Amino acid sequence: MSRLGELCKLEDGWDGYCAPAVSFFNATFALNMLGSACPMDAPAPQIVPGPDGDLQIEWHTAAMDIELHVIGPYDVHAWRLSATAAEDGEEFHLTNDFTIVAGWLAEMSEAAIAARSSAA
Amino acid sequence: MHESLTRPEHLPDYRDPPLNEVVIGVQFVPARGYQQIRAGEVWGLYRADFPLVEEQPPIPPSFETFGLSPAGPMINFGFVTGAQHDRFWFLTPSKDELIQFQHDRLLHNWRKVGDQSNQYPRFENMIVKFDDELQRLETYFSGLSVQSLNCNQAEISYINHINIDKSESSAVKDWFRVLNLGDWPIDDVSATWRRTLRSDHEGPYGRLSCELASAIDPRGRRIFVLTLTVRGRPSGSSIVASIDFLKRGRAVIVEEFTAITSDSAHKIWGRLI
User: CA–CA separation, B264 vs B269, rounded Å?
Assistant: First the structure.
């Protein structure tokens, strides 16, 4: 939440051009989306501002890459690359239902636990 | 538009429902070119019927999203960023109806006031008025910049005050068929439940929230406050889509109200259908 707050407070032109801060509307939506998609044991994502007040939320592990591009409220491009996915990964346009992402994150968490178990 | 003047035949109806307040509202993307200094121009759209004004703190943005179950609580930042925008209440002289406006929301309330004898104008009348109020706002915003109202969330709430002071029973089960707390008198009750609303072709489209609490009303009477709210994403960003969502939400609320309250309570409220 604090990271999203920081991105809302960016100064206009933070990218050296004329990008605005992440819009408060988009950040609030992203927060709700994460509440619906992130299991308690999911790793913390990286959150990156976009050039149009949008934002990108990313998880990168050895087993999987997940990227959610929050273009606006109810307008999210979701992409995943994993060992089981096609070469270019799998992608969906999502609005209010993030069950797919919750499933991806659960798989990511399980893979991380399995990797730790086999290393121990 | 006139279609909305007709109450759906299948919906349960009551001669004297325990309604205390009804709120219908839409959240939209802040309009380009609008600044708070123009709030007086927005009041001018409605001032003939709503000549009184009050300032209130803004309502934060809200979104209904789905995925993990059980759903987490609705989350909001504890701060706002950028320029601060107040919420304005534009009220009728009797204050029984009001329009709430802020840079990303428009709502219309009806509520009981004074001796509580003012009659509920009924949803069919409220929704026609609200449609017109949204159209006026869209026309105003389109004069600031080429744009339509970009609606992303709609909500409808029915707040019922169920007077149990002079009734034969104050037992919860005698009023609510979904709650049986036995025959013992209880000091107070508080319950909340939510469920996802789905359709075959859309998947989840909204959420119904039910809140029940015991309370004392301003006249010192013991009451149950039952608040039913449907909130969610309309099927499109237009005013038409939002009005459709509100009609659908109203039907869900009336059916839920009838399903969770008891037959004996229905008799007291004069159930017609």
Answer: 9
Asked if B61 and A28 come within 8 Å (Cβ–Cβ), the reply is yes
**What angle, 0 to 180 degrees and rounded to 10, lies between the N-to-C axes of helices B239-260 and B123-144?**
150
Contact indicator for B177, B261 with CB cutoff of 8 Å: yes
Assess contact for B62 and B152: CB atoms under 8 A. no
Q: 3-state DSSP call for residue A4?
A: helix
ipTM confidence:
0.89
| Model confidence pLDDT, tens digit, residues B86-136 | 999 999 999 999 999 999 999 999 999 998 889 999 999 999 999 999 999
Element (H, E) at B12: none
As beta bridge partners, residue A65 has A60, A81
Parallel, antiparallel, or unpaired for β B87-91 and A64-72? Answer: unpaired
Q: Which residues contact A86 (CB under 8 A, 6 or more apart)?
A: none
User: Cα dist. B259→B1, B19, B52 in Å?
Assistant: 29, 16, 39
* Chain A residues lying within 8 Å of B77, measured CB to CB: 1, 4-5, 8, 24, 27-28, 31
